[in-house]
Amino acid sequence: MRHTIASIVLGGLLLLSVTGCSSPQQGQDPAKVKVELASEPANVQVGQKVKLIANISGLAEEEGANVQIDIRKSDNSILPDTKDASSIGKGQYSVEKTFEKSGAYSIYIHLYQGDLHITKKKELQVS
């Protein structure tokens, strides 16, 4: 009887230790994820096609990440424009955009990976 109870307890502890360490984002600390925004060309002009690049670092695994770039006029005078970014490798994701109005823009970078969703806000000036 003692042997059976000990086996059940030991089996339960083993099962708990195996399942307790296998979360969808194993080892992922959202605070370590850093996002920077760059543009090509660096000085954004009205009517010019621009490549917006999100540089993402700090992910435990790069595979399976999806990035959306949400472009809004800072004064909310136009509707948001959300674009799915394409991976260009080494943690970089890009979209192309032609801005029709000058001024300050708020760029929200949404990172999705499994259950993880991180949003970072960056500012962009268009002249």
Return residue spans where pLDDT drops below 50 for at least 5 consecutive residues: 12-25
Q: Widest sheet: strand order? A: 1-2-6-5
Largest sheet: 4 strands, antiparallel
How far the N terminus sits from the C terminus, by CA atoms, comes to 80 Å
N-to-C SSE string, H for helix and E for strand: HEEEEEEEE
Helix content: 10-25%
Mean pLDDT: 84
Topology:
Layout: H1 2-20, E1 34-40, E2 49-57, E3 66-73, E4 81-84, E5 86-89, E6 92-98, E7 103-113, E8 116-126
Give a concise summary.
The chain is mainly beta. The protein contains 1 helix and 8 strands. The chain is elongated and about 40 Å long.
Task: Describe the overall structure.
By secondary structure, the chain is mainly β. 15% of the residues lie in helices and 48% in strands. Strand 3 and strand 4 form a beta hairpin. It is elongated. Mean pLDDT is 84; it is low at 12-25.
Kindly list the characteristics that best describe this protein:
1 helix; mainly beta; four-stranded antiparallel beta sheet; 127 residues; single chain; elongated
